[in-house]
Write a structure and sequence with these properties.
Elements (H helix, E strand, L loop, with lengths): L14 H10 L14 H11 L36 H16 L11 H11 L8 H7 L8 H4 L6 H8 L7 H7 L8 H5 L6 H11 L4 E7 L3 E7 L15 H10 L7 H11 L3 E4 L7 H36 L16 E4 L3 H15 L3 E3 L1 H8 L3 H9 L5 H6 L9 E6 L3 E4 L8 E4 L1 H8 L17 E4 L2 H7 L1 H9 L18 H4 L8 E5 L5 H9 L7 E4 L16 E5 L8 H23 L3 E5 L2 H14 L3 E4 L5 H12 L5 E5 H7 L8 E4 L6 H9 L14 E6 L4 H8 L4 H6 L4 E4 L1
Parallel strand pairs: 3-10, 3-11, 4-8, 4-9, 5-7, 9-10, 12-17, 13-15, 13-16, 14-15, 16-17
Antiparallel strand pairs: 1-2, 2-11, 6-7, 6-8, 12-18
Helix pairs in contact: 1-7, 1-13, 11-14, 12-13, 13-14, 18-20
Length: 736
């Protein structure tokens, strides 16, 4: 261990050195380590010291593997030495106690605006603190990331000093038992237990080979679900006391019903087992309950892990004081961030962080004023919200407040405070949008990619997947492809404290993935099959649908036609050929006497394909997509109502972002079914508008679907009839 360095003329220890001594029981554990050293070399040395063998970076489960804890910090810990000098340590410890005793511990306040303004100057250079205007000015590389703006490898000395004031609870061993840090039935303890067991090897083998034992479970609150168990493990009993004692009162105060509702208890029960969960029943009625449940789960996970790490720090300090060896304490990953929460807009992040702050109940909330300014609603947004009150309720809820879709923010927890806009490498929880993270991780071909901060994520929560599908799902896929990889730099990591499965490249099997959506889609199902690999198993919860056709009030015949497709790879081509050869000639017949036709396309690729074909054929039509301006859409709707256009081509994303009330529809053609089932009833009910003089026999609605549209079709016609429409002898069905 390098000799202790004195600071100042009086030879006293600096605050940074006092913090190192207090947390780790020694000074400058990384002083003699070169930051540019080879990472694989360091991992190999760490494995060699602990008997794991050399590092290969591949999935393996050696018999010598050991794991005794969990936790995270920003700094590093060197393994304790038996030859340390207890007399020198005692003198340093006495100096530490003198310094900390003069600092008041109870300081209940919220950081003032003046302090926040001073802190903003430091935070502007940290990852996760950039706002929209500064991002556009500073992006100078091909990947869209500016190193100076994010400063991901720099250490904030001011923050190190501020953390020195954070006391470690005395007698943490007893406090852990008294405050239920790890209960006897705590599934977090079992999930991060020693990997060197026969049952654990069976789990890894089953998950790797996708050998799940599926059972169908009916729940009164959640509905029907498919539970995938591994290695013969069946249903698990609920943890009677799953929460940290510190979270119980804030949760009861935050939750409108006090304790868990039946719905929350069922959903949180699956979260607490550390299974991968896909819930496809999100709605306006239960969105607040869902957000509260996963926010509580994320905070509960972080607090338990931090307490466990502080407990190990205390063991190290006691071992140094007595000159003994504390043993092997592995309780962290390569980097500090443990939880990643992905949401589509800033207004979602604002509501979520407000819940997290209430759960923490911290005495200090750093950068709270700045957060309210950049993420909260302003007067202009309130004015827009008032103008949208004539639109459906789900539209108002989605687009109320700040709807910027490019953001990322780190949340760092201290003993009695919480800091927003923390650097990603010093944050405990990261909340971001897919495009915000993509701008951070960089493009595939860029030279300045950085996704090391995702290497040790233990929990991923993706909320409102249905909205993210309306943005760009490719960013979500890119995120999962770059998660839990071995980092390119060490970032001040102490490999003697890194858990063995991180070193062995098995972190993806310990990560919990939670996907929340209004409905199930093929993209979400593919992520559930390929990216959800928790060794505890997984569960998919999907409600039973009555069908959107029940919400249609227009007296019109709805004709569903099944398109014959050869295979999945050619489904789009077969659908387009059927449309060009059979549907367009019928539309031309309608247009001889009646030009009020709307063609609805759910996929933008289909939208572009139809638009280009119709342009080549010389049709007089208008195409309204999400990229159309409001003036262009208004002119198109006016010409359509006046009969100057043969038809309008309309995309689902345009309806999602604008909900244009198209008047005068006589013939409605669904080239493909919408992902959102209520869009179907909304579009059909638009035929009532300005059609008072048109009889019902002059109106028509035609829907095309294939056997690969089961999920969409189930939401439209209902779970009871979907099998008949997909496999029946007839290829045409009529609903009236």
């Amino acid at each position: 261990m390098p000799p202790a360095k004195k600071s100042g003329k009086s030879g006293k220890l600096s605050r940074k050195q006092l913090q190192q001594l207090k947390e780790y029981g020694e000074l400058d554990p990384l002083n003699s380590i070169n930051d540019d050293r080879d990472l694989d070399d360091l991992v190999s040395k760490a494995l060699g010291r602990s008997g794991y063998g050399s590092f290969t970076g591949k999935l393996r489960a050696g018999k010598n593997s050991r794991d005794t804890g969990k936790g995270h910090t920003r700094s590093s810990l060197a393994k304790p030495q038996r030859n340390s000098r207890p007399d020198a340590y005692s003198r340093l410890l006495k100096s530490l106690e003198t310094t900390t005793s003069s600092t008041p511990v109870s300081r209940k306040s919220v950081v003032s605006d003046e302090d926040e303004d001073m802190e903003e100057n430091d935070d502007e250079a940290t990852l996760g603190s950039a706002s929209g205007d500064s991002e556009n000015d500073d992006m100078q590389s091909a990947s869209g990331v500016d190193e100076k703006e994010y400063g991901v490898d720099e250490v904030d000395e001011n923050e190190l000093e501020s953390e020195a004031e954070e006391p470690i609870p005395e007698d943490l061993d007893a406090a852990s038992d008294a405050k239920e840090v790890f209960e006897a039935h705590d599934y977090m303890e079992g999930h991060y237990a020693n990997v060197d067991s026969e049952q654990m090897h069976k789990k890894l083998s089953a998950v790797t080979n996708k050998e799940y034992e599926q059972t169908v479970v009916e729940d009164a609150a959640l509905g029907s679900m498919i539970v995938c168990n591994v290695a013969g493990e069946g249903a698990k009993p609920a943890n009677p006391r799953p929460l940290k004692q510190k979270l119980v009162k804030p949760f009861h105060k935050l939750n409108k019903t006090g304790d868990f509702t039946d719905f929350q208890r069922g959903l949180f029960g699956w979260f607490d087992q550390y299974r991968d969960v896909v819930y496809a029943g999100r709605s306006l009625a239960n969105e607040d309950e869902i957000t509260t449940a996963y926010a509580l789960h994320a905070m509960n996970h972080v607090m338990k892990a931090k307490d466990h790490e502080h407990k190990n720090n205390s063991k190290l300090a006691k071992a140094h004081a007595s000159g003994s060896d504390a043993g092997e304490l592995r309780d962290r990953g390569f980097t500090r961030p443990r939880v990643l929460i992905v949401v589509p807009f800033r207004n979602c992040a604002y509501r979520l962080i407000e819940k997290l702050l209430k759960l923490v109940s911290a005495e200090q909330e750093m950068n709270s004023t700045r957060f309210a300014k950049e993420y909260g609603p302003d007067e202009e947004e309130e004015r827009k919200h008032n103008a949208n009150k004539r639109k459906p309720e789900d539209f108002q809820r989605t687009f109320a407040g700040n709807i910027d879709d490019s953001f990322r923010i780190g949340v760092q927890l201290h003993y009695k405070s919480v800091k927003l806009y923390a650097d990603f490498y010093r944050a405990d929880i990261i909340i971001a949008s897919p495009i915000g993270l993509r701008m951070t991780t960089g493009a595939e071909s860029g030279d300045r990619k950085d996704f090391d901060f995702l290497s040790s994520v233990e929990m991923v929560i993706v909320d409102q997947c249905d909205v993210l599908l309306m943005q760009n799902w490719d960013h979500v896929s890119h995120l999962f492809n770059h998660m839990n990889l071995t980092p390119k730099k060490d970032h001040g990591c102490d490999f003697s404290r890194v858990r063995s499965w991180f070193l062995d490249g098995m972190a993806q099997y310990r990560r919990q993935t939670i996907l929340i959506s209004e409905h199930m889609t093929p993209e979400i199902q593919a992520m559930f099959n390929n990216n959800c690999r928790s060794i505890e198993g997984k569960v998919r919860i999907k409600p039973t649908y009555t069908g959107a056709v029940d919400n249609v009030v227009t007296q019109v015949s709805q004709i569903f036609k099944r398109v014959s497709v050869r295979r999945l790879a050619s489904a789009n081509d077969d659908r387009f050929s059927n449309f060009v050869e059979q549907t367009l000639p019928d539309i031309e017949k309608w247009m001889m006497n009646n030009k009020h036709t709307v063609i609805f396309a759910s996929s933008y690729f289909d939208f572009v394909r139809i638009r280009n074909h119709c342009k080549d054929k010389g049709y007089i039509f208008a195409a309204i997509s999400e990229y159309s301006t409001k003036s262009e859409a208004m002119r198109a709707r006016m010409k359509f109502f006046d009969g100057e256009l043969q038809f309008i081509l309309y995309s689902e994303r345009a309806h999602f972002y604008h909900r244009y009330p198209i008047k005068g529809i006589h013939h409605l053609v669904f080239y493909s079914l919408p992902d959102h089932p209520h869009y179907y009833s909304e579009m059909v009910n638009l035929m009532l508008t300005s059609n008072d003089t048109v009889s019902a026999d002059q109106l028509s609605c035609t829907v095309f679907y294939s056997k690969f549209d089961q999920l969409k079709l189930e939401r439209i016609v209902g779970s009871r009839l979907v099998a008949q429409l997909l496999s029946g002898e007839r290829s045409q069905f009529t609903f009236a």
